């Protein structure tokens, strides 16, 4: 919290005040939310410029002593903000404020972009990773939550409350941005849970991330852009949605940290769509360095980033990494929805839009559908405001963590040597099954014959494996633990894995009546 080169936690801060005073309100928060309050205060201090790039922070021991909080609380805050890109750590040299954050307004993007990479209008190779398998006994395809967890009673209570108090005038044509009460409720919730810069005036309620993508595509196309970059591997739906607006897709390769900067810079695009908090489908969380590099690229080319935060709330081993948008709200369009937390059939989502694009996005939304249904918006606002949404997220997190654990245990027991990669988050895992169970084509064919629906990782990108291992994208959220265990047992039985004694398929729950997994793309 001190100027560069200073180490004392009580040294003057940027405005001449002792640095620890910037965080005193957070230290005085109730114990159960003190850690989150400290992280929020640090983010805001960096965003506002009170802590400038290059400022060295006091040690965790010094700051904890100054604030009168535990050292672990400060350590956790430093680690969280380092992962998000606000801070940077150097071994033996301490923790510093990073240079990724921008809070000011950026100029509007103009000009043209032409892609020089792998260009496609839809999915790689023309395949549709979400079609088929209607008769599968166990459907492990990713993308669908457990629809039985939808909070029917709480939602019905919110509907009754809304209908009892909603004035007649509210049933007229709505503001195309969305009901003010919903925008305010969402802005508060997103700032608190995802660390975004959430101005209700710049939040547009839309029909999920899918509509947010097409709104942005139309606006950028009108500005002269002709191509958008997407992650490789990534969701084919991104390409299809932007293709519907007249834009080409350039597939940009990933590694274990995020988009590779070299191919991005060489692609010629000035807009990209990314899933940095939990990349689909690889399951990685982007590193702080790649987050910063992406924003540097956007500023250099005068471009924009669409952040699809499709399952950012679901992290099982630690607090979720904050959204990329918080680092530069004038370069990042942040999009999310209730498709994974409530149900995709509600068709309710949001986009936080840079000021330079806001008027054009709102006008395009108005001409597209005149706004989302008023009653649905009012019910969601009631649900969020009264705490129902937070309760629903906690309920889903418990259920999905249990199901992920069940999947990992089943794979270890029935398909020995299988490696699961990616962070402990979301609604799917990447499983690398040893080559002795392959080759991949035979593995997938045998699985289909046994009634087990699966998706291979290469169906979501342009690269093809050469080592003979089978790489699977396995969705688990819509299946009970018993269904997951029996489904993996079925799979092991046909590909030669270790099969232990299990009950008959369908005897332990919903295996015989599994919900069909739907789109793994934008919600």
Summarize the structure.
The protein has helices at 24-27, 34-48, 60-67, 71-84, 152-165, 180-194, 208-222, 236-243, 261-267, 288-301, 355-369, 374-385, 388-414, 440-449, 481-495; strands spanning 87-90, 94-97, 118-120, 138-139, 203-206, 227-232, 248-255, 258-259, 271-274, 304-308, 332-337, 349-352, 419-421, 428-433, 452-453, 455-456, 470-475.
Distance between the termini: 40 Å
- Give the radius of gyration: 24 Å
- Low-pLDDT parts are 1-18, 105-118, 120-133, 500-518
What portion of the residues fall into strands of 2 or more residues? 5-15%
**How is the quaternary structure best described?**
single chain
Strand element count: 17
Number of helices, counting only DSSP H or I runs of 4 residues or more: 15
Global structural class: alpha/beta
Q: What is the helical fraction, as a range of percent?
A: 25-40%
Question: How confident overall, as mean pLDDT?
Answer: 85
Biggest β-sheet: count, sense, barrel? Answer: 9 strands, mixed
Net shape: globular
What does this structure look like?
It contains 15 helices and 17 strands. By secondary structure, it is of the alpha/beta class. The strands form 4 sheets. Strands 3, 5, 6, 7, 8, 9, 10, 11 and 12 form a 9-stranded mixed β-sheet that branches. The radius of gyration is 24 Å and the shape is globular.
Topology at a glance:
Layout lengths: L23 H4 L6 H15 L11 H8 L3 H14 L2 E4 L3 E4 L20 E3 L17 E2 L12 H14 L14 H15 L8 E4 L1 H15 L4 E6 L3 H8 L4 E8 L2 E2 L1 H7 L3 E4 L13 H14 L2 E5 L23 E6 L11 E4 L2 H15 L4 H12 L2 H27 L4 E3 L6 E6 L6 H10 L2 E2 L1 E2 L13 E6 L5 H15 L28
Parallel strand pairs: 4-15, 6-7, 6-9, 9-10, 10-11
Antiparallel strand pairs: 1-2, 3-7, 5-12, 7-8, 11-12, 13-14, 14-17, 16-17
């Amino acid at each position: 919290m001190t100027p560069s080169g200073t180490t004392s936690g009580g040294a003057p801060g940027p405005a001449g005040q002792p640095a620890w005073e910037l965080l005193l309100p957070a230290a005085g928060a109730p114990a159960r939310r003190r850690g989150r309050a400290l992280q929020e205060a640090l983010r805001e201090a960096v965003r506002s410029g009170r802590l400038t790039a290059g400022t060295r922070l006091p040690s965790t021991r010094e700051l904890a002593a100054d604030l009168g909080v535990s050292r672990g609380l400060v350590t956790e805050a430093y680690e969280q903000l380092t992962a998000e890109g606000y801070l940077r750590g150097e071994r033996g040299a301490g923790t510093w404020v990073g240079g990724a954050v921008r809070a000011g307004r950026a100029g509007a993007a103009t000009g043209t972009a032409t892609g020089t990479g792998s260009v496609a209008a839809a999915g790689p190779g023309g395949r549709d990773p979400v079609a088929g398998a209607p008769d599968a006994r166990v459907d492990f395809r990713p993308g669908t939550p457990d629809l039985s967890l939808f909070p029917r009673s709480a939602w019905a209570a919110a509907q009754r409350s809304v209908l009892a108090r909603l004035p007649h005038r509210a049933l007229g044509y709505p503001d195309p941005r969305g009901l003010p009460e919903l925008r305010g409720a969402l802005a508060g919730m997103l700032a608190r849970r995802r660390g975004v810069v959430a101005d209700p005036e710049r939040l547009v309620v839309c029909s999920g991330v899918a509509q947010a993508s097409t709104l942005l595509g139309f606006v950028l196309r009108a500005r002269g852009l002709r191509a958008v970059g997407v992650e490789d591997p990534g969701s084919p739906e991104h390409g299809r949605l932007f293709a519907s607006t007249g834009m080409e897709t350039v597939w940009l390769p990933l590694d274990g940290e995020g988009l590779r900067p070299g191919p991005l810079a060489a692609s010629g695009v000035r807009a990209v769509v990314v899933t940095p908090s939990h990349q689909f489908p690889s399951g990685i969380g982007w590193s702080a360095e790649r987050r910063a590099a992406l924003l540097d690229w956007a500023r250099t080319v005068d471009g924009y980033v669409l952040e699809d935060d499709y399952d950012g709330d679901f992290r099982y081993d630690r607090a979720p990494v904050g959204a990329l948008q918080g680092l530069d709200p004038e370069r990042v369009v942040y999009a999310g929805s209730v498709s994974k937390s409530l149900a995709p059939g509600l068709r309710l989502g949001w986009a936080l839009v840079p000021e330079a694009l806001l008027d054009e996005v709102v006008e395009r939304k108005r001409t597209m559908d005149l706004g989302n249904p008023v009653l649905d918006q009012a019910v969601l606002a009631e649900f969020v405001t009264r705490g129902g949404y937070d309760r629903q997220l906690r309920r889903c997190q418990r259920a999905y963590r249990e199901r992920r654990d069940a999947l990992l245990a089943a794979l270890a027991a029935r398909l020995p040597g299988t490696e699961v990669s990616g962070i402990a988050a979301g609604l799917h895992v990447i499983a690398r099954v040893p080559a002795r169970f392959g080759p991949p084509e035979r593995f997938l064919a045998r699985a289909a014959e046994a009634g087990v629906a699966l998706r291979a990782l290469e169906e979501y990108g342009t690269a093809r494996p050469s080592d003979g291992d089978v790489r699977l994208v396995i969705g688990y959220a819509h299946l009970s633990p018993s269904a997951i265990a029996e489904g993996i047992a079925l799979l092991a039985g046909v590909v030669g894995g270790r099969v232990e004694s299990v009950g008959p398929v369908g005897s332990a729950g919903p295996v015989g009546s599994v919900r069909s997994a739907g789109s793994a793309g934008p919600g």
